[in-house]
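Researcher:
Attend to token order:
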Amino acid sequence: MSQPQAQARPDVADCRRDFPALDQQVSGHPLAYLDNAASSQQPQSVIDAVARYHREDHANVHRGVHTLSHRATEAFEGARDKLRDFINAASRNEIVLTSGTTEGINLVAQSYCRPRLGAGDEILITHLEHHSNIVPWQQVCEQTGASLVVAPINERGEVELDQFLGLLSEKTRFVAISHVSNALGTINPATDIIAAAKERGIPVLLDGAQAVPHMAVDVQALGCDFYAFSGHKMFGPTGTGVLYGRESLLDAMPPWQGGGDMILEVSFDGTTYNELPYKFEAGTPNISGVVGLGAAVDYLVDVGLDRIAGHEEQLLGYMTQRLGDLPDVRLIGTARNKASVQSFIVGDIHPHDLGTILDHQGVAIRTGHHCAMPVMDYFGVPGTARASLALYNTEGDVDQLVTAIEKAQRLFA
């Protein structure tokens, strides 16, 4: 009997049809959605998965003996297994479901770092970080007396590896860096940084919010100790995310929040905490969101992260060239190794004014400091316009962006 043929992966160029929100007009123009670094759109399969849960399976997880609770639990825990495979974690116990990258980083800051740090210790980050990878470490330093050390960047928006490694010392107790910069798209040399830290026995956390939608991530190959990311940037629902943690570290960490589901036994004399990963998942979770996140993982795997990366690399090159050819446009962030983000300034036009004019042309971009004020300070600007790509974007979207910028320039001439 002949073997069934493997189903061909969908063409990336055809993926736009899977996203119903893109099939609309804004101010009489086709929508060119270029704000994916803030939040990506959702494919129909994710929307359907969430709706199906609410329509047929809505019940609390882990706590019921009835059919709906069983079905909800199966879908919820099934998503955890998909996420484990998606980033190649060694165990499902290493997948803590969170509300997003921010919660994951705060969990590590308070549960891992706070009990271990003291005066004279240092946490090392970079000048590229999102506020969510700055403020939690500042808070821990205030709580413990430790110091926050910041590795510098260059005019391209790159971390100078030699300078970063030079800041690793016997005082360094923790390293936290973005895998990909949300403001500039810079891909940091994570593998080299992790290897150097491991030689010194220093744990490393990666903020992967801008990486997982655009490239294959293998936490075991990277060798990181923690990896945090969000669902809403990878075609999933808002209010969902993952903290990967090395099991031996998670096992030794105290719970961050207390309540239901993170316990095995409670009395007024004391509490016995639940096993991993539930020890860190207090209260009723965002069940439908996690179900939708599992569907988003299915979608990404079906398309193929390698194909997504290739498509976005080509499109980023096209967008960078088109923007660079415009008069009086300053590109902010020109790293040699980049993901699908480009920040820019158009003459003396304030980014917010530019964003408003572009919106009237059907072009959605992000304007402002992008929760990366230190990056803006480095480049001497209050904010930028930021166009960010996803697998469903096309050269037509970029052309629409450029045409809209040209109109803005004429209006402000």
